[in-house]
C-alpha cells in the first residue's frame, strides 16, 4: 500500500503509526466490517464523520465504529447551538476524501476534530488512512497531537 496524505503528515510530525491494509467490500463500508477485517473490536476502530455546526461550520467527529454520534453533545462541545451531518455529496469536495475513507488527518483543509472520550481506554486506535482499504493504527495521544483534537463525550 502506498503512503497516503495522512501517513505522510504523520511522518512529517515524527509520529509513530502502523499502516494496515484490508480488502474492501463496496457493499459494506461500515466500521464494524472494517474492524472485522483488521482484527480489532469495533469499539477500537474509529470512524470519522463530517458535521456542520451552525456557528463553527465544518467539524470532524471521531467515534467508535459501533457507536452513534450524539449531535447535541457534539454541538455543545464545539460551541454550536446545533450540528448536522454534512450531506454525502459534500464530503469529497470539503475533505478530499470519499465515504469509507475519511480521515481526520490530512484533509484538504484543517477542520476542528472532536474525539470521543472512549478513545482514552485504548493503547492504540484504528482510523482511516484516507482511502478505502487502509487504516492507521496509532496511540490516542498521537491522534490528538496530529489533529489538535478536543476529547469529549460525543456518543449517545
Automatic annotation (TrEMBL):
Signal peptide bounds: none
Keywords, sorted A to Z: Lyase, Protein biosynthesis
One Gene Ontology biological process: translation
Residue ranges of domain YbaK/aminoacyl-tRNA synthetase-associated in the record: 30-144
Keyword Protein biosynthesis carried by entry: yes
EC number annotated for this UniProt entry: 4.2.-.-
MF term (GO), any: aminoacyl-tRNA deacylase activity
Family: Belongs to the prolyl-tRNA editing family. YbaK/EbsC subfamily.
Name the UniProt record assigns to this protein: Cys-tRNA(Pro)/Cys-tRNA(Cys) deacylase
Amino acid at each position: 500500500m502506498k503512503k497516503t496524505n495522512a501517513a505522510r503528515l504523520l511522518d512529517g510530525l515524527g509520529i509513530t503509526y502502523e499502516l494496515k491494509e484490508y480488502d474492501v467490500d463496496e457493499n459494506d463500508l461500515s466500521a464494524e466490517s472494517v474492524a472485522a477485517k483488521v482484527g480489532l473490536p469495533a469499539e477500537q476502530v474509529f470512524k470519522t464523520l463530517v458535521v456542520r455546526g451552525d456557528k463553527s461550520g465544518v467539524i470532524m467527529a471521531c467515534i467508535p465504529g459501533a457507536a452513534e454520534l450524539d449531535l447535541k453533545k457534539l454541538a455543545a462541545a464545539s460551541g454550536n447551538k446545533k450540528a448536522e451531518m454534512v450531506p454525502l455529496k459534500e464530503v469529497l469536495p470539503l475533505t478530499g476524501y470519499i465515504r469509507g475513507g475519511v480521515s481526520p488527518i490530512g484533509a484538504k483543509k484543517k477542520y476542528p476534530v472532536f474525539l470521543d472520550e472512549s478513545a482514552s481506554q485504548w493503547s492504540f486506535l484504528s482510523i482511516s488512512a484516507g482511502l478505502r482499504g487502509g487504516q492507521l493504527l496509532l496511540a490516542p495521544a498521537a491522534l490528538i497531537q496530529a489533529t489538535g483534537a478536543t476529547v469529549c463525550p460525543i456518543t449517545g
